[in-house]
Design a protein that fits this description.
Elements: H1 7-33, H2 46-66, H3 70-92, H4 102-125
Helix pairs in contact: 1-2, 1-3, 2-3, 2-4, 3-4
């Protein structure tokens, strides 16, 4: 029979998996974004929805990885989304057929806020098991 992880081990495992999710997301965006198929993959305005949803996941993972609570957790969500999104937009400056845009970065930040809201709801639903020490 499997034994439940102690709370500290569970939270540490969640934080490690979340950090790996942020890292893997950044790597996938960097590699996949450089492929010719990425040019015009999502036409406007659907590209902003793709940014919002992608960076909601990145933001949620960054918030979990940060190990904070409350407004600091929300700040980690938005900061993580902006850092990965900024890297992606900067990378696009050097790719043929791609261009960086402030509106994409704004959609990334909105995704980070959505990730923060989702994480707050998820944390409440789990009784604080994800983030409370």
């Amino acid at each position: 029979m499997l034994k439940a992880l102690p709370r500290d081990n569970f939270q540490r495992t969640v934080r490690i998996l979340a950090a790996l999710t942020v890292t893997l997301s950044a790597a996938v965006l960097y590699v996949a974004g450089a492929q010719p198929v990425a040019v015009g993959l999502f036409p406007a305005p659907w590209d902003k929805l793709a940014h919002l949803l992608t960076f909601a996941v990145v933001g949620l993972a960054a918030g979990l990885a940060g190990g904070m609570r409350g407004w600091r957790m929300a700040l980690c969500c938005v900061a993580g989304a902006l850092l990965v999104g900024g890297m992606d937009e900067l990378h696009q400056l050097f790719l043929p057929g791609r261009s960086a845009s402030w509106s994409d970065l704004a959609a990334d930040a909105a995704g980070g806020l959505l990730g923060a809201a989702m994480l707050a709801v998820l944390d409440r639903l789990t009784g604080g098991r994800l983030t409370h020490h």
